[in-house]
Amino acid sequence: MTEWFIVIIFAxxxxxxxxxxxxxxxxxxxxxxxxxxxxxxxxxxxxxDLMQKLFMEYGSIKPIEGVVCATxxxxxxxxxxxxxx
Length: 85
What we know:
The chain is α+β, with helices and mostly antiparallel strands. Helix content is 33%, strand content 28%. It is globular, with a radius of gyration of 13 Å.
């Protein structure tokens, strides 16, 4: 069974141009249903909890470019610069 994760993709800043995108992967909760993951990232009642976790991790809220649901394989491919075949 495939696990899905919420992934926050932060906006690039000038020093990040060569280093790639900064992202945060929520390891809890995980999802077995991608539709439930998508429902959670668009649910106005869940968004404050996600933002609070980011604030706890970084001490501030960094500019966010996107929020997606992804599998472990998709995340690993993104980290290593691979594309899906």
